[in-house]
Design brief:
This protein is an alpha+beta fold. The protein has one domain: Glutaredoxin (3-Layer(aba) Sandwich), CATH 3.40.30. It is built from 11 helices and 6 strands. Strand 1 and strand 2 form a beta hairpin. The relative contact order is 0.19. About 14% of the residues have low confidence.
Length: 248
């Protein structure tokens, strides 16, 4: 049973790890035989990677809402396996999404205090900015995670002694996330307001609870294709094969 994300989880300052897991092209119209016609300009294909939104399930989705294959990834921003999957898979995922045949949704699955603080801040952006930040956080994970590697018991106690609405801010600041999000256009005022808002924490709790109860998550990353959890898929090669089979 997954525990609630409460004050105890917020103050887990050890580096969180992973869980137990490791539009189709239209045919060109032919002119009628014997009739002189002016060649029509080819229709500009829509790039569905530019279509993003928040979802009722609490995630961020990219792609055609009517895509044949709906791909959900549950992942933690502090998870090395999730980082490796992102590096290996995102170019292929975006290529599928661009066609309109696959949509991709990212849902945060929180594994610890740092993950909670960073995820709350990331989710206070627009959907396009959220996806860019996820890519950047994974690309730099080995660097910023070191900011949490040597947190002392005294620092933990100092954070615990802060007013509740300042604790996530302090945890995010330890990772220098204020600088990360400032460089991406988030003011300090918005950053603090986001991290103070308990509704943001509750939403992540709800996503995690549903992940466990509905999708049977035991670790990250976990993949769901058209509503079905795929516990045996761990790497992009296998996910890719499953998506190809579903597209047909």
């Amino acid at each position: 049973m997954r525990k609630s994300i409460g004050i105890a989880a917020v103050l887990l300052l050890g580096v969180a790890g992973c869980g137990d897991k490791g539009a189709g092209d239209a045919a060109a119209a032919k002119p009628a035989t014997g009739i002189a016609t002016k060649a029509a300009a080819p229709a500009t294909a829509r790039d569905w990677t530019q279509v993003t939104a928040r979802t009722p399930g609490g995630g961020f989705v990219m792609g055609n809402p009517d895509a044949k294959v709906k791909f959900i990834e549950f992942a933690s921003l502090t998870c090395p396996h999730c980082r490796d999957f992102n590096k290996e898979a995102m170019a292929g995922i975006r290529a599928y999404v661009a066609t309109g045949k696959v949509s991709y949704e990212f849902r945060n699955f929180i594994l610890g205090g740092q993950d909670l603080a960073i995820s709350v801040a990331a989710r206070c952006q627009t959907p396009p900015a959220f996806f860019r930040s996820v890519d950047a956080l994974y690309a730099t994970q080995t660097q910023w995670i070191q900011n949490y590697a040597h947190v002392t018991p005294e620092q933990g106690k100092a954070i615990e002694a802060l007013p509740r609405d300042r604790q996530l801010i302090a945890i995010a600041d330890l990772g220098k996330m204020d600088e990360f999000f400032r460089l991406r256009g988030m003011s300090r005022a918005k950053y603090e307001a986001c991290l103070k808002d308990e509704n943001n924490v509750k939403q992540l709790q709800a996503i995690g609870d549903e992940a466990v109860k509905k999708y049977g998550l035991t670790g990250t990353p976990t993949f769901v294709l058209n509503g079905e959890t795929k516990p045996d898929l761990h790497v992009w090669k296998d996910v890719d094969a499953a998506i190809k089979a579903m597209i047909g």
